[in-house]
Design goal:
Elements lengths: L2 E11 L7 E10 L2 E6 L9 E4 L3 E5 L1 E3 L20 H12 L4 H17 L2 E8 L8 H11 L2 E8 L18 H15 L11 E4 L7 H14 L3 E5 L3 H11 L3 H7 L7 E5 L5 H10 L2 E4 L1 H6 L7 H7 L2 E4 L12 H16 L6 H15 L16 E5 L14 H4 L6 E4 L2 E5 L2 E2 L4 H18 L1
Parallel strand pairs: 1-4, 1-5, 6-7, 7-8, 8-9, 10-11, 11-12, 12-13
Antiparallel strand pairs: 1-2, 2-3, 5-14, 14-15, 15-16, 16-17
Helix pairs in contact: 2-3, 2-14, 4-5, 11-12
């Protein structure tokens, strides 16, 4: 039996149903499950001991939207100061040069960065497959890193010649897209509570796939009992496109095609109006809020306060590193809190609510209520934050991590297994990965 004992943590922010905060408490983990939470617990024979003194303990953070392949294209000239559509048109030619190696290495780097920021579970939205790349490449990377992974088989099918945004050579035939969705679901999807990999279906966006593909993807997802994901209502350009091409707002478009429900989550949703927020609340549709990316692309401030008040499930997403540049989920929690305060006043969102969105909020969006909480019977996805360092020095409330830091984790446990120890990733050679990443970037620059 694999056992672990976190002993005498300064504070445990459980994010359980009562939102308990336990001082000088312990956690015992057995075979990937939280077995006990309490005080002065005895260390089971053979258990790994982690001393929690000087640490705040939280559930592992949950990332609900990412494009891991973009870790190879941070801070690209020409795209640094562009709005969404212009930014995409700058980057499409670079991404067209990718292949399996680029996909695997960029995913490894992105996952490592997330892990070091306290993230134990992440989704990924991969919607282009140039030069033989497959979703399998990113799944291999996640299994090696040891993170809980929710890859989505994305797609683009409407190229420039048909009125879409992506170049024709990056789009796929819709029959082939659906066929590969079936392949990856059958090969990798695990519906069990202990699942390390679940697969979703994720046509990229209303401006890069057809109505038929959106509708067929929804039918297939329900048949396979998997989740659906896409971008929606990201900025003013997105709304204008929907009104011009479909004659309705994005929320109505999604509803008409079967894209609402508790098995659906949409990324961004910056421009949802009141009726769309009510629709999402009524149907149980989730939202991946990506505040740093939305700021970087000038998309606006998503109405998170209104969503939460209406009962919409909201989680956080770092989005791709080409539009965020930094994949740190604690930064996203802080930015979420700050933007809602800018928009709605200083009392609009507390640090603890922002952290709740980053943990149990994201787990609920991804349909994983067994994660995102520290409670007996839940999966042992746990982050330990060292509050003895300079970032927390002078803080009267070290548990308010979003206010005073730290923004990087000291220890990270996924399914009861340690993958970060003393601030270092222990499952892979990170320096080797960084060197491989640098070589990939150089090759891409040479090709262009």
């Amino acid at each position: 039996m694999n056992m672990l004992h976190i002993k005498n943590a300064d504070t445990i922010l459980t994010m359980d149903d009562q939102r308990r905060e336990l001082k000088h408490a312990d956690i015992i983990v057995k075979d990937g499950v939280i077995a006990e939470v309490g005080f002065d617990l005895s260390t089971p024979e053979g258990a790994q001991l982690i001393h929690g003194a000087g640490h705040v303990v939280t559930p592992g953070l949950v990332n609900t939207h990412h494009h891991l392949y973009q870790s190879l294209t941070r801070a690209v000239p020409g795209g640094q100061d562009a709005l969404l559509f212009g930014w995409l048109q700058t980057l499409y030619p670079i991404w067209a040069c990718f292949g399996p190696d680029e996909m695997r290495i960029s995913a490894s780097i992105g996952l490592a960065e997330l892990a070091l920021s306290g993230c134990t579970m992440t989704s990924d939205h991969l919607y282009l497959y140039p030069n033989g790349a497959r979703l399998d490449d990113t799944i291999d990377a996640a299994l090696e890193i040891g993170m809980r992974f929710y890859p989505t088989r994305g797609a683009m099918s409407i190229g420039e010649s048909d009125g879409g945004l992506p170049p024709d050579h990056l789009v796929e035939k819709e029959a082939a897209i659906l066929e590969d969705c079936i392949r990856v679901i059958d090969k990798f999807h695990d519906s069990s509570e202990s699942a390390m990999v679940r697969v979703g279906i994720a046509p990229c966006s209303p401006f890069s796939v057809s109505r038929d593909l959106m509708r067929d993807a929804a039918v297939l997802a329900r048949d396979k009992h998997v989740f659906l994901h896409t971008h929606l209502a990201e900025n003013d350009e997105d709304i204008a496109y929907s009104l011009e091409k479909f004659g309705c707002r994005p929320g109505q478009y999604a509803q008409d095609l079967g894209w609402t429900g508790d098995d659906v989550w949409h990324a961004h949703c910056v421009k949802l109006d009141a009726s769309e927020i009510n629709l999402f609340a009524k149907t149980g549709t989730g939202v991946a809020h990506c505040p740093c990316s939305n700021c970087r692309l000038g998309s606006g401030i998503a109405p998170v306060r209104a969503m939460r008040d209406a009962g919409v499930k909201v989680g956080l997403g770092v989005d791709g590193s080409a539009s965020n540049d930094i994949a740190n989920l604690m930064n996203e929690a802080r930015q979420t809190m700050l933007l809602q305060r800018v928009q709605n006043g200083a009392d609009a969102m507390s640090a603890r609510e922002a952290l709740e969105i980053a943990t149990r909020g994201g787990a609920d969006v991804l349909g994983r209520p067994e994660c995102g909480r520290i409670a007996v019977g839940k999966r042992a996805d746990i982050a330990l934050w060292n509050v003895k360092g300079v970032e927390s020095a002078g803080s009267w409330d070290p548990a308010a991590l979003v206010l005073a830091g730290p923004s990087k984790v000291s220890h990270l446990i996924v399914e009861g297994r340690e993958i970060v120890r003393d601030g270092l990733l222990i499952t892979v050679d990170l320096n080797k990965l960084i060197a491989e990443q640098s070589k990939c970037v150089s090759r891409l620059q040479d090709r262009l």
